[in-house]
Structures are given as structure tokens and as C-alpha cells.
Amino acid sequence: MVGHPPSLPFEPFKTKVVERIPNPTRRQREAALERAGFNLFNLRSDEVRIDLLTDSGTGAMSDRQWAAMMVGDETYAGSRNFAHFEARVHDITGFPYVIPAHQGRAAEHLLFSTLCRPGNIVPNNMHFDTTQAHVVHAGGTPVNLAVREAYDTVSDYPFKGNVDTAALDKLLTVEGKERVPLVMVTITNNTGGGQPVSLANFTEVVHVAHAHGVPVYLDMCRWAENAFFVREREPGMGSRTISEIGRAFFDLADGATMSAKKDGLVNIGGFVAVRDAPLADRLKEALILFEGFPTYGGLARRDLEAMAVGLEEAMDLEYLEHRVGQVRYLGALLDQHGVPFLHPAGGHAIYLDVDRFLPHLGDEELPGQALAIELYREGGVRTVEVGSIMFPQGSSEQRPLELVRLAIPRRVYSASHLAFVADVVGRVYDRRAKIRGVTMTYRPERLPHFTARYSPKTR
Ligand SMILES: *Cc1c(COP(=O)(O)O)cnc(C)c1O
Question: Which atom of ligand 1 is nearest to the CA of 190?
Fold first, then answer.
């Protein structure tokens, strides 16, 4: 251990309901791995001690949100919960048309099936897995245009989510609006380490895209976390509120998709919001076909009410200080142990840098998956590979980053749980030289990481 103990993130909430944490034995964990085909998505929750698989829909709702669930007006058309939800999204984003969806990928399905045609190209800083899959599903080609620094896991560049606007301009000059139906920007950049996009960069993106007549949409899943970083790091932003910073982004954009399972602080929910009335009508047609009537969008109305409250709670500065503080706390503990991860710590997760963690394993040995398996084996900590398995084609970039994501659910775990995680990662790091690779024994065609199966290499 070196340096001072990292500062503990203060929890701006107290506990009202508790859930027992499972404690599987090493033998049970070994058996669970075999049964799961070494895919951690196949584990049962009672086989997991600390679950850092995802921060999506895994957070704890507040007492106010649970109270909101009780005022659900379960009307098919015209529910008052929808009116409340719609008004809240409108207040936050300024987008006039709000279309509810049951989660982020449903919103992506509506947007891409409406706007994207076979042969189209969709640029993004970095596509998330479901976003990429929906572009492909609509016949398009996803292109990642993050800045060079996004691929450097060591530098402390403050806005690694930024778009390379020169590359964007070049792409739009060559392909034009005929082939590029929209530009997407993901805040924060989940695939690239939960890194923020600056307001200056987003302004430039919109300037470039609009000059070519191409609209810009935000993947706004973690917009409040992004705004927190902008407030902290971007010159002149320190005295602005989260809501003002968010609004500065939304005012520039033509629309957005949202998984409210992230910065909506709910277990299920999402939406797509747009400025253009004819587009909103087409999205609503798709919505009725795939999700449900426009005043519920595949959700119970009580879910809309909980979302309305959660969207507001996610903007609370003290909440965000704790949220990002937890990620930094885990990062600081790992730094003390010399464990390599993508710097700086992201908004919702720590991403272990597998190339530096397991330098003795080649790409074909699926080192990210091998590491995720070891973290579970060592201490029952469930994580996910974000690398060559999640992104098999790698889309346009040189080589995708090979990472293992430790995503922290919102308002769920305490600092001592994170200290436990750091200890488990540290123990695996200490025996890293002995870790072997894995082979994929079943490879599904789409979104492979969810259902693939593996077997450990014996030599
Ligand atoms: C989670 C996520 C999505 C998809 O949302 P779901 O609610 O999981 O369907 C899209 N984009 C990003 C950046 C995400 O993190």
C-alpha cells in the first residue's frame, strides 16, 4: 500500500430496506462456472456475492419513487402518469415530443428502424453494443469516431468521450446526408470507459453535422454523470447546475434516446425524444407496432411515475458526488495495488485494462473473458468483458479496447463492498501470471457476449 487512504464517498441516503448478500463457497462458484459455460450472464443471482455486471436497471429506488409506484393510474390511453413523465422529460431536455419505451434498446429500435436504411452509415463517438446491433439490424454500418485519446488507457485526458470532429467532417464530406441519416453521440461513452464528452466538443459536432444537413442525436443514458464531469472539468462550467449543463447539450441536439435504467434511476424504462413533428408521428407508429400505445410505451404506468421522480433525483449534486465518488474510491484502491485500469475513472464503472493486466495472453485467448472468470472464481464478483467478444467486428477502429468493466449499481453497495472488490481484484492481480486463456465453444451470431459459451484452456 502506498500513499494516503482514499477518501470515503459520503452516502447521501440511509437504509430503509435491506437484502441479504449471498455468500457462495469456492466449490459452489467452481460448479456455477461449469454450469454457466463460463459465461457470467448464465449465473444465478444467489451465486454472486457482489454484482458489478451492469449498472443498468440494478439501482435502488428511493422512498419517493416507491411512493410514486403506488399512484400508478393504469389507464391504457391518457394516463396521468404519462402526462407527468412527459412534462418532466420536456422540462429536462426541452424536446417537444416524448415517446416512452420499455428500455434503451427499444428506443434505439424505434429510432433506427425509422431513420436508418440499408447501406447507410451511422457515426458515433463509440457505439454501445445494443446501439451498434440496431444500426446493423436496420442494414446500416456503425462507425466509431472517438478522439485518439479514447484508445489510450493511461492518459488522464479529461474528455476521452469526445468525437474526432475532423474525421466526422471528412466522413460527411465523402458520404453526404444521402448516406448518413444521423450522427449519434453517447454521453458518457460506455464502450470507451464511461468517459465524458465536453460541451465544446458536442457544440463542434453539431456545427459540423448541421453544415452537412445531418441531424445529431444523443444517446443520453448517462447524461447527468456526463454533466457532472463537465461541471468539474470544463472551463467556465463550475458554477452551472447539472440541469443547466444538460440543457446546454439538449438544446443543440435534434433528439435523444434514453435508457432510464441508468440516469433515470429506475429498474425498467426509457424513451426517445425528438424535435421534429413528422418524425415523432412515424416513431409513434413504430411504437404502437412494437411497444404499445404512446401513453405507456411497453411499461406499466406506475413505471412512468417512478421514472419521472428518478430523472429528477439523478440531477442532485450530492447524489452525483457520491456516485462518481464511489467509482473513484474503487479506482484509488486499485491504484494503490498497482492494478491497471483505464484512466481516469469513469462515471459509472472502472474498466480494467486487460492488455496490461494479462500481457502474456494473445487476443485469440480471449483475455478479457478469462479475467472476468477469475474475478468471479476468486471472490464471487461478477463483471463483464467489454472487448473483442462484445465487439467482434470492432466496427471501424484499429482494434477495440480490451477491458473488463466493473459497473457500480446506483445507491446499492457501500464503500466496504467496494473495498472487498478491490481486495478480490488485487488477489487476482497477484496471481495474474498463472491465468490461462479461454476458447469460445458456442458463438451466437448477434450480441455474442450474452449467450456465448466458453471452456478454459488447459495448456
Ligand atoms: C444501456 C445502454 C443502452 C441500452 O439500454 P438498455 O436499457 O440496456 O436497453 C444504450 N446505450 C448505452 C450507452 C447504454 O449504456
Answer: 13
